[in-house]
């Protein structure tokens, strides 16, 4: 991996407890390193099982210059391939999603089955060996219905540890028995790390997210204790203890697990109660879908949040799931893809109203996008210098930047 001395010095000089220096957010050289060292070597969340519910269903994802096709084969296994024909390199699938019997190159019609094997071509001579020209595979990880890919030859091995830890948390929500009823692809005018930093704190939530804070407790994501809020903070802690005991007794894992910067595949999870005797992340904090997920019967299961480095976060409620993936476009633009899932048998108009289901996070995404864009303009200013993180409300941002810088150091060592 070729890295300039100036970039090595920038990485070495990172100051703990402060946000990153401007080139981390603005320089093309850093973006190129991010795509190779972070998105090219780690497990990247790309979709959910219901995206490819049937054999032949596929979706494509772009990571830097790499295009990947993720599909369900005839045996219902999930596979991923580089979206490149082995003949002269034409892109095989040119839509975001679809369904096929085989993968047929639109250029010269080389045909691959759903396991990636070349099964048909013409004019290549009698001695041509199809078996040597199958599609190039990409590693796939499935965590209770969340689909991850890894472009590295040898992916991080701790994915299995994360999967074993998280399946009991996510399993009762039964992603495979859901359907995706809405998807929002929104491009933020900012670097992907600003998108992640913004997500990893709620310091900004009050005053910026009026829809989201209808159901989120003010103290749920960090708060500096003081004499004026001590009683309210203690009440919230007592509520968490009571609700965790109730949920755990019902077989729902709820306790915090925090490994954001202590693992190669960093992650964190926690189930928190919702405000206003809340049931779901909606404007009135009531369920958005009357048909609950899996075999769940209690609407008041709070919100189970799951954060994974480097590119995703997810919210699981009794009635629906919201998943988010981050895909860098260039140094100053980032795609945020949001999906809403409900039970596969839920019917629009009877069980759920799509506007009510999506309105909180559609609004929140646009508000976050505006904040990220403002941050991008700020870090590009010659007056910018890294400022200190709050130890109370931005501790998870520090863990993200710690993880990020340590992964760069490991890659260039």
From TrEMBL:
One Pfam annotation reads Ring_hydroxyl_A
Gene Ontology molecular functions: 2 iron, 2 sulfur cluster binding; dioxygenase activity; iron ion binding
UniProt keyword annotations, A-Z: 2Fe-2S, Dioxygenase, Iron, Iron-sulfur, Metal-binding, Oxidoreductase
Needed co-factor(s):
Fe cation
For this protein, the record's InterPro entries field holds:
Rieske_2Fe-2S, Rieske_2Fe-2S_sf, Ring_hydroxy_dOase_asu_C_dom, Rng_hydr_dOase-A
Q: For the Rieske domain, which residue ranges apply? A: 45-149
Gene3D superfamilies (alphabetical):
Naphthalene 1,2-dioxygenase Alpha Subunit, Chain A, domain 1 (3.90.380.10), Rieske [2Fe-2S] iron-sulphur domain (2.102.10.10)
Q: Name the protein family.
A: Belongs to the bacterial ring-hydroxylating dioxygenase alpha subunit family.
* Protein name in UniProt: Aromatic ring-hydroxylating dioxygenase subunit alpha
Q: Which organism is it from?
A: Denitromonas iodatirespirans
């Amino acid at each position: 991996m070729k890295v300039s001395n100036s970039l090595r010095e920038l990485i070495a000089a990172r100051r703990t407890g402060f946000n990153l220096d401007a080139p981390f957010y603005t320089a093309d050289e850093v973006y190129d390193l991010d795509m190779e060292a972070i998105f090219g070597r780690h497990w990247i969340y790309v979709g959910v099982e219901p995206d490819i519910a049937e054999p032949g269903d596929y979706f494509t994802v772009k990571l830097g210059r790499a295009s990947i096709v993720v599909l369900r084969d005839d045996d219902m296994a999930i596979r991923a391939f580089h979206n490149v024909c082995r003949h002269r390199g034409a892109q095989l699938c040119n839509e975001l999603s679809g369904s096929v019997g085989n993968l047929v190159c639109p250029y010269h019609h080389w045909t691959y089955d759903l396991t990636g094997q070349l099964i048909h071509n013409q004019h290549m001579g009698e001695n041509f060996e199809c078996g040597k020209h199958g599609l190039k595979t990409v590693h796939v990880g499935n965590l209770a219905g969340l689909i991850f890919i890894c472009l590295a030859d040898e992916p991080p091995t701790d994915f299995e540890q994360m999967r074993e830890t998280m399946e009991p948390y996510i399993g009762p929500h039964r992603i495979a028995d859901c359907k995706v009823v809405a998807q929002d692809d929104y491009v933020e005018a900012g670097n992907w790390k600003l998108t992640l930093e913004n997500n990893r704190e709620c310091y900004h939530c009050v005053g910026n997210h009026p829809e989201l804070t209808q159901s989120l407790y003010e103290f749920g994501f960090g708060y500096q204790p003081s004499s004026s809020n001590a009683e309210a903070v203690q009440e919230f802690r007592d509520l968490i203890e009571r609700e965790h005991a109730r949920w755990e007794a019902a077989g729902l894992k709820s306790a915090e697990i925090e490994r954001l910067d202590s693992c190669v595949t960093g992650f964190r999870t926690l189930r928190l109660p919702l405000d206003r005797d809340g049931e779901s992340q909606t404007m009135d904090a009531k369920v958005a879908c009357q048909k609950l997920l899996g075999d769940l019967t209690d609407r008041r299961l709070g919100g189970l949040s799951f954060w994974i480095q480097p590119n995703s976060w997810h919210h699981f409620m009794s009635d629906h799931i919201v998943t988010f993936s981050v895909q860098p476009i260039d140094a100053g633009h980032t795609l945020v893809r949001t999906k809403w899932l409900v039970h596969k048998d839920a019917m629009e108009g009877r069980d759920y109203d799509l506007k009510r289901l999506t309105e909180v996070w559609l609004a929140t995404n646009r508000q976050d996008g505006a904040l990220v864009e403002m941050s991008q303009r700020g870090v590009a200013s010659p007056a910018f210098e890294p400022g200190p993180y709050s130890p109370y409300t931005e501790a998870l941002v520090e863990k993200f930047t710690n993880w990020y810088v340590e992964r760069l150091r490991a890659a260039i060592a």
